[in-house]
Amino acid sequence: xxxxxxxxxxxxxxxxxxxxxxxxxxxxxxxxxxxxxxxxxxxxxxxxxxxxxxxxxxxxxxxxxxxxxxxxxxxxxxxxxxxxxxxxxxxxxxxxxxxxxxxxxxxxxxxxxxxxxxxxxxxxxxxxxxxxxxxxxxxxxxxxxxxxxxxxxxxxxxxxxxxxxxxxxxxxxxxxxxxxxxxxxxxxxxxxxxxxxxxxxxxxxxxxxxxxxxxxxxxxxxxxxxxxxxxxxxxxxxxxxxxxxxxxxxxxxxxxxxxxxxxxx
Length: 265
Prior knowledge:
This protein is mainly beta and about 260 residues long. It has helices at about 1-20, 60-70; strands at about 30-35, 40-45, 50-55, 70-85, 95, 100-115, 115-130, 135-140, 145-150, 155-175, 180-200, 210-215, 220-230, 235-240, 255-265.
């Protein structure tokens, strides 16, 4: 008799447990949704008062949000412009076309806020000053730099001096809400790493000849100045103005160099 009753008891316990399970359809009375870093956190309350937590992950959005939160990034940029001097009457006239300014920089951008960034760069730039009078030669003498007429034979076709600097720049920048308009005002400082004079002429046979003065041409070993940037969309214009003299004291004319052009980022 006992062996007959025991299986019946087990059968009724199993059937009772099956009927006691929750139905497939669950009715929720309240729902709260929270989105954090691209994930959706859903809190749902059932009819019996219990809360259920459901998490939906979105890896793509999460990576994008982390990238947006990054406050610093680095890039390379180049600059192309024109050099001039001020005042213009203290040395032979500099011809803008051909007095090229080049620069290549490692650029760092610090995002202080949505509308305020700090741009810092370390790079190399080249000054070139091409003389309007192609027959003048820049001569380095013990007393300083002098410009002399080319004695010939032949005809001068190009005369210029150049210098290169290792340069550091810092430009605090204001941005519009859509980042399409930018205005930056800052400064820079650099140390000279090269320089030379160059004179090109056609000899009496019409053959091109070149003369080089491989020295610093008394260009100052240091430079510092003010910089302005104005950007629209992907285009950024810059203006540099040296606050120190282009040449070393008492060895050249008292003029300041300035450059303006476009930054390619």
